[in-house]
Amino acid sequence: MPDDRLELLRELERADEAVAAELTEVDELYAAVEELRGRALGLADQLVALPERQATAAEAVREAELGVAAARREAERAAAEVAHAGEEQLAEARRRELVARDSLHVSERLAAAARSRAAELEGRAQAATSEIRALESRAADLAEALARRPRVAGEAVGDPASGTAGVSEWGTRARAALLVARSQLAAERDAVVRQAHELAAVVLGEPLPPLGAREVVRQVEEQLAPK
Q1: Buried (b) or exposed (e) across 21-50, using 16+ Cβ within 10 A?
Q2: Contact 164/42 with Cβ under 8 angstroms?
Q3: pLDDT tens, position by position, 106-122
Q4: pTM value?
Q5: Cα–Cα distance between 218 and 204 in angstroms, integer?
Q6: Alpha carbon distance 112, 190 (integer Å)
Q7: Distance CA 31, CA 142 (A)
Q8: Containing domain of residue 174, as a range?
Q9: End-to-end CA distance of the chain, in Å?
Q10: Eight-state DSSP code of residue 151
Q11: Total tally of structural domains belonging to the chain
Q12: Which of 116, 135, 114 is CA-nearest to residue 47?
């Protein structure tokens, strides 16, 4: 076989490897965009309910603190009754004081739990703010990576807007652009492999079974190797 045919097959092999590498990169970008989009959508769902939960928690704290104040007044009144009770009333006064103190302790525990819940929700709100900044930064990095790829750069992708809505909307556009790019690359790779098969069939005089470009070249080299 003339050397130029073998070299052409090897060029097709190199083209196949280049397209395969680009396909891998596009798949990795697609996975990264999907992960980012999913995080943005999940965080948006959390943020929808968070304000109402915070308001409910704040109201629970207010009511619990009112309960503590009322229980404390009752405990102080019961303690005063013990201090002024006569011998006959002392036992009953002490019983009421014990009940009042127990009620105060329960109210204080409930108030502590309410404040803890409110603090937890406030922490979630702060974490959500940090997560939004992280999502925006990641989206900007991915947008920059996509802008360097001629197959997916342009109006179909663009720069992401701020917030979870901006990030998720950009992710939807980027995902669509990457799917188009992947389809183009897959078609290009199929064409390269088809050319390699057609050339190998001409050289060998018979078609090869379905193989990748690399395997086609190896088959041809083995068939033409000196015996």
Answers
A1: ebbeebeebbebbeebbebbeebbeebeee
A2: no
A3: 999 999 999 999 999 99
A4: 0.75
A5: 13
A6: 66
A7: 11
A8: 3-224
A9: 15
A10: T
A11: 1
A12: 135
Find out whether 185 and 23 touch, Cβ atoms under 8 Å. Answer: yes
Round to whole Å and give the CA distance between 16 and 213: 6
Task: Give the span between the Cα atoms of 80 and 174, in whole angstroms.
Answer: 73
Cα dihedral 30, 31, 35, 38 sign: positive
Question: Which amino acid does the sequence have at 213?
Answer: A
CA dihedral sign of residues 93, 94, 96, 101 = positive
Structure tokens at 158: 């663009």
Unique residue bearing structure tokens 């090897």: 10
SS3 168: helix
Q: Is residue 114 a contact partner of residue 56, using CB atoms and an 8 Å limit?
A: no
Give the pLDDT confidence of 179-204 residue by residue, as tens digits: 999 999 999 999 999 998 888 888 87
